[in-house]
Amino acid sequence: MRSESVTIDTSDIATLPFEKALAELEQIVSRLERGDVPLEESIAIYERGEALKKHCEALLKKAEARIEKITLGPDGRPKGTEPLDVES
């Protein structure tokens, strides 16, 4: 039994918009869950999936850093903004 090494290029991931990266990641997960992918290809697409996941996480963190929460004064009117606290 001969094992062929499958490599998948991940150099394009850094330029993918969030929506495309997430859609591709979902396709990879679906293929892996079906289990109809040869082992070597499974390993390669899993590695691409990991790279896509990290890219999506980085884009989300960048977006969160840009979002601000509007603060209200005692009278209920907007008084300014503060960074969004995503933990609360």
Automatic annotation (TrEMBL):
E.C. number: 3.1.11.6
Give the top-rank taxon of the lineage listed in the UniProt record for this protein.
Answer: Bacteria
Q: Name one Pfam family in it.
A: Exonuc_VII_S
**A GO molecular-function descriptor:** exodeoxyribonuclease VII activity
For this protein, the parts annotated as crossing the membrane are none
Q: Where in the cell is it found?
A: Cytoplasm
Catalytic reactions on record = Exonucleolytic cleavage in either 5'- to 3'- or 3'- to 5'-direction to yield nucleoside 5'-phosphates
On subunit structure and binding partners, the annotation says: Heterooligomer composed of large and small subunits.
Family designation: Belongs to the XseB family.
Q: What does this protein do?
A: Bidirectionally degrades single-stranded DNA into large acid-insoluble oligonucleotides, which are then degraded further into small acid-soluble oligonucleotides.
What name does this protein carry?
Exodeoxyribonuclease 7 small subunit
Name the source organism: Chelatococcus albus
Question: Which gene is annotated as encoding this protein in its UniProt record?
Answer: xseB
